[in-house]
Automatic annotation (TrEMBL):
<feature type="domain" description="Fibrinogen C-terminal">
    <location>
        <begin position="208"/>
        <end position="429"/>
    </location>
</feature>
<dbReference type="Pfam" id="PF00147">
    <property type="entry name" value="Fibrinogen_C"/>
</dbReference>
<feature type="region of interest" description="Disordered">
    <location>
        <begin position="1"/>
        <end position="88"/>
    </location>
</feature>
<keyword id="KW-0964">Secreted</keyword>
<keyword id="KW-0325">Glycoprotein</keyword>
<dbReference type="InterPro" id="IPR014716">
    <property type="entry name" value="Fibrinogen_a/b/g_C_1"/>
</dbReference>
<feature type="coiled-coil region">
    <location>
        <begin position="139"/>
        <end position="201"/>
    </location>
</feature>
<dbReference type="GO" id="GO:0007596">
    <property type="term" value="P:blood coagulation"/>
</dbReference>
<protein>
    <recommendedName>
        <fullName>Fibrinogen C-terminal domain-containing protein</fullName>
    </recommendedName>
</protein>
<dbReference type="InterPro" id="IPR036056">
    <property type="entry name" value="Fibrinogen-like_C"/>
</dbReference>
<dbReference type="GO" id="GO:0005576">
    <property type="term" value="C:extracellular region"/>
</dbReference>
<dbReference type="InterPro" id="IPR002181">
    <property type="entry name" value="Fibrinogen_a/b/g_C_dom"/>
</dbReference>
<keyword id="KW-1015">Disulfide bond</keyword>
<keyword id="KW-0175">Coiled coil</keyword>
<keyword id="KW-0732">Signal</keyword>
<feature type="compositionally biased region" description="Basic and acidic residues">
    <location>
        <begin position="7"/>
        <end position="33"/>
    </location>
</feature>
<dbReference type="InterPro" id="IPR037579">
    <property type="entry name" value="FIB_ANG-like"/>
</dbReference>
């Protein structure tokens, strides 16, 4: 009994210290009220359980009183050892309190779990599921909109292609119509010119002179026909010229020029025989030769000659002769020229002055070789050329490696074939 009385204050002091520590912990915690209440209850239950298991009085009160026999005091002062407390087979207070704490913990677990979660870090399951469902709905709506826009874009693309094709067709039709209008205007102008010329010719007296006859472009110019183009001249009995189509240049150096030769397209071969050169060949709007017979008749009066040259670099030169004439067929259309001027370099036609005209079937040159066969064109060959305006038409890329091309030695030498050549005549007495 004395031992128990001595141990009771120590045990009471320990319990007081434990309660103080728990009170300080409760003051330091900043949890929400529900969590704090739960933890207080759990700590109290745990403390009571521990107190009950360690306190002698609690153990004595929990167990039935036992009868003890007093032992006589011994001579030594050794304290008697405490008697063992028998355990009852029934449920103890400690076990009951533990079960009660476990039940309360299970009941309060959902509440404390919800309270301890941070809503900013992990949203509630219901809210998260709702947001996920809304996101899926938005994605499906966007997919539908994308599909609709893609279909609309394809339709617009097809319509755009259709419009482009229609515009191209309209442009082609417009070009065709413009070409037809231009052709119709040209034919209309030609018909008017012919009508006017015929009317003028009919109004002339039978005793007409060379001053009022219509036989070349200069005579048309003097009657106010000042538009360059194709004209059809009537036959003239006084000069002996037949009806013929000519191209009149009414712009260059005052106009009035009758074009007698042109090379610019390259589709007409000039390697012809004597008869073809005598009558002429080609189309006056393209490459052509007016004919040696016509040249003879047109140059029976003093006539000037102008030769225009163009190379493949786009440079243009000209050579002009104050006097130019041809003899008749019996004299092989011999050439007579004089009075050179221009910027085409050295006079490259003077070497051919006083020479007869030659073709591949009639050699009239002054050389042992047949120059018309070598140069592949009819011309006034000497032995053989310083120029050949009726040579082979070589296109760009092949124009610098042949001696039988369209040449003018005074400008580009014997191996350079020119891009364009035009020969034209008008009376020496012409006044613009």
């Amino acid at each position: 009994l004395q031992y128990r009385l001595r141990a009771q204050p120590e045990h009471t002091a320990g319990c007081e210290r434990q309660r103080k520590r728990e009170t300080e912990r409760e003051r330091e915690t900043d949890r929400d009220p529900t969590t704090t209440t739960t933890l207080k209850l759990l700590r109290k239950l745990h403390s009571c359980d521990r107190d009950c298991s360690s306190c002698p009085q609690a153990a004595r009160s929990a167990s039935p009183p036992q009868r003890t026999e007093e032992t006589p005091p011994r001579s030594t002062r050794r304290a008697p050892s405490p008697l063992p407390v028998p355990r009852s087979p029934a449920m103890t207070t400690s076990t009951f309190l533990r079960l009660l704490a476990l039940g309360l913990a299970l009941l309060l677990l959902p509440v404390t779990g919800q309270t301890l979660r941070d809503p900013r870090k992990r949203p509630p399951p219901a809210q998260k599921a709702g947001a996920k469902g809304q996101c899926c709905e938005d994605v499906r709506a966007l997919k539908v909109q994308v599909a609709n826009l893609s279909s609309l874009l394809e339709e617009l693309t097809r319509k755009q292609d259709t419009v482009v094709r229609q515009l191209m067709d309209l442009d082609n039709q417009n070009r065709v119509q413009e070409a037809r209008v231009t052709e119709a205007e040209s034919k209309y102008s030609e018909i008017n010119n012919r009508v006017d010329i015929i009317q003028l010719q009919a109004s002339q007296s039978l005793t007409q002179t060379t001053s009022d006859a219509i036989y070349d472009c200069a005579s048309l110019y003097s009657r106010n026909y000042k538009i360059s183009g194709e004209y059809k001249l009537p036959a003239d009995g006084f000069l002996g010229t037949p009806e013929m189509e000519v191209f009149c240049d009414m712009d260059t150096d005052g106009g009035g020029w009758t074009v007698i030769q042109r090379r610019k397209v390259g589709l007409t071969s000039f390697d012809r025989d004597w008869k073809q050169y005598r009558k002429g060949f080609g189309a006056v709007r393209g490459d052509f030769w007016l004919g040696n017979d016509n040249l003879f008749r047109l140059t029976r009066q003093p006539t000037a000659l102008r030769i225009e040259l163009e190379d493949w670099e786009g440079h243009v030169r000209y050579a002009e002769y104050k006097y130019f004439s041809l003899s008749d067929d019996a004299n092989s259309y011999k050439l007579f020229i004089s009075g050179y001027s221009g910027n085409a370099g050295q006079d490259s036609l003077r070497y051919h002055n006083n020479t007869n005209f030659s073709t591949k079937n009639k050699d009239n040159d002054k050389c042992v070789d047949d120059c018309a066969q070598l140069r592949k064109g009819g011309y006034w060959y000497n032995c053989c050329t310083d120029s050949n305006l009726n040579g082979v038409f070589y296109r760009h890329g092949e124009h610098t490696s042949h001696t039988d091309g369209i040449t003018w030695y005074g400008w580009h030498g014997p191996n350079y074939s020119l891009k364009r050549v035009e020969m034209k005549i008008r009376p020496h007495s012409f006044q613009p």
